[in-house]
Specification:
- The complex is a heterodimer.
- By secondary structure, chain A is mainly α.
- Helix content of chain A is 49%, strand content 6%.
- Chain A is built from 15 helices and 4 strands.
- Chain A has helices spanning 2-6, 18-35, 45-50, 57-67, 71-74, 92-109, 170-180, 196-204, 208-218, 224-240, 252-261, 266-274, 278-291, 296-304, 317-322, and strands at residues 125-128, 139-144, 156-159, 164-167.
- Chain A has a 4-stranded antiparallel beta sheet, with helices on one face.
- The radius of gyration of chain A is 23 Å and the shape is globular.
- Chain B has one domain (17-119): S16 Ribosomal Protein, Chain: A (2-Layer Sandwich), CATH 3.30.1320.10.
- Chain B has 4 helices and 5 strands; from the N terminus they run αββββαβαα.
- A 5-stranded mixed beta sheet of chain B has the order 4-3-2-1-5.
- Chain B is elongated.
- Chain B starts with a helix and ends in a 7-residue tail after the last helix.
- The mean pLDDT of chain B is 90.
- Classes of the chains: A mainly alpha, B alpha+beta.
- The interface between A and B is medium-sized, with 31 and 27 residues.
- Chain A: It holds the Pfam family MRP-S22.
- Chain A: This is Mitochondrial ribosomal protein S22.
- Chain A: InterPro entries: Ribosomal_mS22 (IPR019374).
């Protein structure tokens, strides 16, 4: 990992500072509050029991336990300006206190980015003035610059050359908001790196975590590009069984959620068992049963009241039916 | 130290607040700032507040970008500011105000001129070639 970070990255400038990640965390909370991901917020209580959402307490707890907490990896050196290391002399108690604080900070860094459904395209016509047809050659994009309005509620309208006054599409909105209210780590025009043909190069260099961090900085969580890049990354990881790249990062929960929803957990389960992470394996199977209660192994577990290590014993139903 | 600030401020006789465009940019590259200023001030001089901007040249996506701080615009209009004609036309295009009558008039004049040009092109072509012309 250190070698990777030190490699002269012509392709991927790891510019994302902790400040930006902390900012994103704050926006995540606001975003979740406002948008109430359609997966979970579909409202009625019985629907929530039937299909657990990404944001449920139990699900988040399971995903967090599976993510692991490798302090060495979480706090590995990020490309920033070079400062000589500082050494401190601590007593046993002070060292434990420092470790505890480090764990709290790591928990903050490991907060999972939201998983939302793709946003509906906007097509809303406000006015149609046919008199204006042919007078202009280019369209006008008007942005409301009131400082206090949240970006989701900002008015951005487009007057087309044929006289139609319509609301701007999501891409136009994102571009205008980035022009007038720039966010750190985000570009007005998304980098070419996010196109499908170039993602392959990134995956060959094993830089899945970096591309996901860049994706979080660049796109909104419910945009099509965000979802596409994330799914492509998870597919590649699953194809080459590189699960360890994302372990102990904040993307692990999202990857597990994606795989469990599509019932492609075999490789992950084998990887966990081979690394002797049996607790994680039981968490994974518990999550699987929560999401697919109609499958055979879930029913057996329910009847037999299986917990913990019994779930993954070789003669258990899960091993026979799912793998 | 003697404070001379208020004595140095320009005092006008008459005049009112206007919301108009202040030109900036470079040669062959205009850029307008939508600005609330005294009417007697220079066009690009000291203003009370900037309320937005307009880039008259289309960008790479073929759009002319304009930003308007509607909240402050409403405040100045409430204080009795007047609008310049280009500002009124721009706000009419934006949908904040109704379309300016001159916009509609100019559009109709342009359409009439184009139609007349088309008609004056068609008859000489017919007269000259002496052929039944295809539908234009």
């Amino acid at each position: 990992m250190a070698a990777l970070a030190a490699k002269g990255a012509a392709l991927l400038p790891v510019r994302l500072s902790r400040v930006a990640r902390a900012l994103w965390g704050w926006r995540v909370q606001r975003g979740l509050g406002q948008d109430a991901g359609p997966a979970g917020g579909a409202g009625a209580g019985e629907k929530r029991d039937a299909k657990p959402a990404f944001t449920d307490e139990a699900v988040q707890d399971l995903l967090y336990r599976m993510t692991g907490l490798n302090l060495q990896k979480v706090f590995r050196p990020v490309r920033q300006e070079l400062k000589p290391p500082k050494y401190r002399l601590l007593t046993e108690a002070q060292l434990q206190e420092a470790t505890r604080k480090a764990v709290v900070e790591a928990k903050e860094k490991l907060r999972m980015p939201p998983v939302l459904d793709e946003r509906e395209p906007i097509d809303d016509v406000l006015a149609d003035d046919k008199v204006l047809e042919g007078t202009e050659t280019a369209k006008y994009v008007f942005t409301d610059l009131t400082y206090a309005t949240p970006h989701r509620e900002r008015f951005i309208v487009v007057r087309e050359p044929n006289g139609v006054l319509r609301k701007a599409t999501w891409e136009e909105r994102d571009r205008m908001i980035q022009i007038f209210f720039p966010k750190e780590g985000r570009r007005v025009i998304p980098p070419v790196l996010f196109k499908d043909e170039h993602l392959g190069t990134v995956f060959q260099q094993d830089r899945h975590e970096d591309i996901l961090n860049m994706c979080i900085a660049q796109f909104e969580p419910d945009s099509a590009d965000y979802i596409r890049v994330h799914h492509r990354t998870y597919d590649d990881i699953e194809k080459h069984a590189k699960y360890d790249l994302l372990r102990s990062t904040r993307h692990f929960g999202g990857m597990v959620w994606y795989l469990v929803n599509r019932k492609r957990t075999d490789g992950l389960l084998i990887d966990m068992i081979s690394r002797d992470l049996l607790d994680d394996a039981t968490c994974l199977i518990t999550l699987y049963h929560m999401l697919h209660p109609e499958c055979q192994s879930a029913k057996e577990a329910e009847e037999g009241k299986l917990h913990g290590i019994d779930l993954i014993k070789p003669n258990s139903v899960f091993a026979q039916t799912e793998i | 130290m003697v404070q001379l600030g208020s004595a140095l401020l320009k005092g006008y006789r008459g005049g009112h607040v206007v919301i108009r465009f202040a030109l900036g940019g470079c040669t062959n590259r205009p850029f307008y700032r939508i600005v609330a200023a005294h009417s007697k001030r220079a066009r690009d001089g000291k203003y009370l507040e900037q309320l937005g901007c307009l880039d008259p040249l289309p960008n790479a996506h073929g759009e002319k970008v304009a930003g308007l701080n509607l909240e402050r615009l409403r405040h100045w209009l409430g204080c009795g500011a007047q609008l310049s004609r280009p500002a009124e036309k721009l706000l009419g295009l934006a949908g904040f105000l109704p379309l300016h009558p001159m916009t509609i008039t100019n559009a109709e004049r342009l359409r009439r001129r184009r139609r007349r040009a088309q008609e004056s092109d068609a008859p000489p072509a017919e007269g000259g070639s002496q052929e039944p012309s295809a539908a234009v």
